[in-house]
Amino acid sequence: MSKILAFTNQKGGVGKTTSTANVGAALARAGQRVLLVDLDPQTNLTKGLGLVDAKHNVYGALLGEYHLKAYPLHDKLALVAGSPALSGFEKVKGDELDREFLLKELLEPVRERCDYILLDCPPALGLVTLNAYACAQALYIPLEAQMYATDGLEKVLELVGRVQRRLNPGLVVGGVFFTRHDKRKVLRRETAEQLRAQHPGLVLDTVIRESIALGEAPHLGQDIFTYAPQSAGATDYQALVAEILTR
Length: 247
What we know:
The chain has 247 residues and is α/β, with parallel strands linked by helices. The protein has helices at 16-29, 44-48, 58-62, 89-93, 102-107, 127-135, 149-166, 186-198, 212-216, 224-227, 232-246, and strands spanning 3-7, 34-38, 71-74, 77-80, 116-120, 138-143, 172-181, 203-209. It has an 8-stranded mixed β-sheet with strand order 3-4-2-5-1-6-7-8, with helices on both faces. InterPro entries: AAA_dom (IPR025669), DNA_Partitioning_ATPase (IPR050678), P-loop_NTPase (IPR027417).
């Protein structure tokens, strides 16, 4: 039975989609069968991995219009496409009984065929995100070590507490990790140290350094290991996956 990991943060632009794509790619390179699910209405994960004009997406599957469709990307790596229509998911399904478990029910039949399912959550803490939290075993929270970084983190941790009490008692926060990190910048270094002190054991050792290659790869529809396997970004995501697996 696969492990379901959700990558989440209330703040946008922190490398959540980049992390979902590259952690998934690294797991697949390590021999794991990985399914990526794009839950963000911006569909950056779908576009950034080169999937264009997908006829089937997670929104249509959630509405029961068709079965869940996974598009193969590489050996052992597949993607369920996202849809801009996910922005209206709460309006369509908000009054439905057990609405928080629709994604869990959708993924259940494919769990035996995967080792890992990675969920790229939207920045909004709405019904789509609740569905992700309700079926995940662990959350990973990317953030930038800068002013106001704790705002998004605290909101996520608050929601996690409510989900644990009401929907998914087995949910844990697997870890927080810093993206676009530059240890030479005093503010970023101090913010990282502050968060490590506030949340001991929660902040991962691995940091994802600022990397031009990480920004370039999605424009070519590639993960970092395909685009620049010798880059700092590839090295850092390889290390992040190694740390995730040990935890």
